Amino acid sequence: MVSGAVDAGLDTVGFTDHCSLTAVMRAEKLLWNRNFDRTYEQRRAALDILDDRHDITLQDGVEMDYEPSLEADIERFLDTAGFDYAIGSVHYTDGREVFPRESFAEMSPAETRGFVDTYYDTIETLIESELFEIVGHVDRIEWHPALRGLTTESHHRQVAAACANSRTVPEINASHVTSDPAMYHPSRPFIDVLREYDVQFTVGTDSHEPGAFGPRREALETLLAERGVDPVDPVGL
Ligand SMILES: [Zn+2]
Q1: Are 115 and 94 in contact (CB under 8 A)?
Q2: Please, are residues 90 and 140 in contact by the beta-carbon 8 Å criterion?
Q3: How far apart are CA 138 and CA 156, in angstroms?
Q4: Most buried residue, 88, 111, 143, 204, by most Cβ within 10 Å?
């Protein structure tokens, strides 16, 4: 991955392995290997070795699953681990994941809208917790075919108002641009509302393989120029 970042011309790359302290989604934690709370020191040692072998700056980060009931545990873990920065993400809420493998087929339209409201309430609580430098892929539910289009301007304003009063900044995430060039998190209208509240942004390619850096970097630069966004370094926020 470091070589991929170098090949893409990046001068800095952050690694943010998935990490979950959950008890309620225990099976998913094991299935999707979100066990970084047990292995982060090994990755840190590997980053130290790679740091000597490359000119690129390596950032030692983490992407944490956020659940409101886990705040004390997350705070303790982040204090102990001492990462350069932490992304907080809502990957599940209300007992359901937000990924396309989750089915919402048996839910009524009103129940589905209620789930979306709960998702954004959880995002707001995440931002208010001040635990994280970054809130990850803030409108992630828009990637789910059953939830797409259910994010409203009122959700945009709810999140933007929370960000305006927090150190936590949203990332502009390019994880889907190779399959859908128009798809960013947050969406363009969402970015515009966040800017209205003077919210700053960081950027994330969300690369899971080395070849992803290049095209996603280009896509991010295009969007930043189009929207007039000058991203911030999450280290020290
Ligand atoms: Zn994520």
Answers
A1: yes
A2: yes
A3: 10
A4: 204
Number of other CB atoms surrounding residue 154 within 10 Å: 10
- How many Å lie between the centroid of ligand 1 and the Cα of residue 137? 7
Q: Where are the domains of the chain?
A: 2-226
The residue behind tokens 């999707």 is: 32
Q: What is the pLDDT of residues 150-186, one digit of tens each?
A: 999 999 999 999 999 999 999 999 998 888 888 999 9
Q: What is the mean pLDDT of the chain?
A: 94
pLDDT at residue 121 above 90? yes
**Burial (CB count within 10 angstroms: exposed 0-12, middle 13-18, buried 19+), residue 5:** buried
Q: Which helix (H) or strand (E) holds 119?
A: helix 109-129
Res 32 pLDDT > 80 = no
d(CA 137, CA 148): 14
Ligand 1 center from residue 191 Cα (angstroms):
18
Q: Calculate how far, in angstroms, residue 119's C-alpha sits from the geometric centre of ligand 1.
A: 14
CATH 1.10.260.40 fits 2-226, yes or no: no
Ligand 1 centre to CA of 88 (Å) is 8
